Amino acid sequence: MLASSLTLSPRLIVCPENIVQILGESNYSRIIMNDGQNIMVSQTLSMIQQKLPSEFIRIHKSHLINVRYLAQILRRQKLFVLTNGFRVPVSRRRAAGIQANLLQSTDSPTLGIPGFSKKAYLSTPLPPTL
Fold first, then answer.
1. For residue 43, what is the DSSP state?
2. Which of 38, 88, 92, 116 minimizes the number of CB atoms within 10 Å of its CB?
3. Domain parsing of the chain, residue ranges
4. CB-side neighbour CA atoms (13 Å) of 85
């Protein structure tokens, strides 16, 4: 279960359940909400990540996603497709940790993603890293 609210500034409180992804932009972060709203805050991605529940995973140095909004995993291209249509790159360095985090984040064998199977995901070899 996600936390009921996330305080980003004294005047800005959001519900983590409504956050699709967070993009790091230097010392700022852009929060993409499920209604399409973009919120820019003067906090780093790391600072925000510490306040978020485990449903949020860091898949790249500048991308944090809510796994509840994960629509598709393009494993060979190392991309996650979110329900809002964004294609988010997965860092080669973080790939193994992401896999473990995804598998622990829910008991569902499909993670709520149509056509996704944890078993198939684990048995598909990753492409070689450069």
1. S
2. 38
3. 6-123
4. 2
For the chain, give the number of residues.
130
Token representation of residue 114: 């149509």
- pTM for the complete prediction? 0.75
The region that residue 126 occupies, defined by phi over 0 for left and psi between -120 and 50 for alpha, beta otherwise, is: beta
Per-residue pLDDT reduced to its tens digit, 33-69:
999 999 999 999 999 999 999 889 899 999 999 988 9
Distance CA 101, CA 119 (A): 15
Do 113 and 72 form a contact (C-beta atoms < 8 A)? yes
Fold of 6-123: OB fold (Dihydrolipoamide Acetyltransferase, E2P) (2.40.50)
